[in-house]
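Q: Sequence in, structure out?
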Amino acid sequence: MTSSRRVSPRARPARPGLWGGRLFFGPQRLMYAGPLAPTEPHAHPTFQVMVALGEPVRMRDGDSHEADCPWAVIPPDVEHTVVRGALDVVLLHVPAEGLAGRRLRMLGVGARAEDWLRAGEWLRTCGVARLPVRWAEAEAWTRALLSALQAEVGAPPPTHPAVKKLLRLLPESLDGDVRLSALAPQVGLSVGRLSHLFRAEAGFALRPYILWLRLQRAAEHLQRGASLTEAAHAAGFTDSAHLNHSFRRTLGLNPSEIAGVVQWVGPPSG
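A: Exactly. Output:
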């Protein structure tokens, strides 16, 4: 049974426990499987697909409505908070700019907790019963989740060529000038046109997407054993405090809550 209620926006969740699960991290893949702890309010430029195998997760939206969610689909750039976690949870981040993300946009998921719960009801048929342990199992989970969600969705419209070019350029441009004024000439558009077009096609502004790329780069260094300060500098953040702030704003927790705590799982080599 699920429920929804409105609470005071001043209510703050307790933050006990650790994220002691597995983090499947590699090119175009970010999945966490394990115990889910409460978070601070946050938003990220990805779809988040969530399945709880036992007790539901209590989620709060930006208007302070809450719902108990055995599953959920949270759209990009939408504030959400984990109020009460659970022991056996899978979180899959789906890049909104990719084909799978563009198909998920066609579901038209709203910004309220009850919308996320309703969209996630498709996941009851995904057929997965235990947490993934190996990379291949995480990939099978991903296929099952996306297949369940996209069963009734048609083909999305094609991405504008200038946006496709920009998406190819950005990961290799983080060490340089990534202001709109520098990027627009590289894709043959004016600053205003590129800003409008990117938001229209991706569903969020360019700046949070660049921040997301920097956080991914920082995570790559943390995965290799770098300190928070080393990871921050490598990803273009001023210092570890800057990285902490950006991490909390985007993911609702400090990087120290996963670095050295989660078990990192990468794709097979070779």
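The two ends are 46 Å apart (CA to CA).
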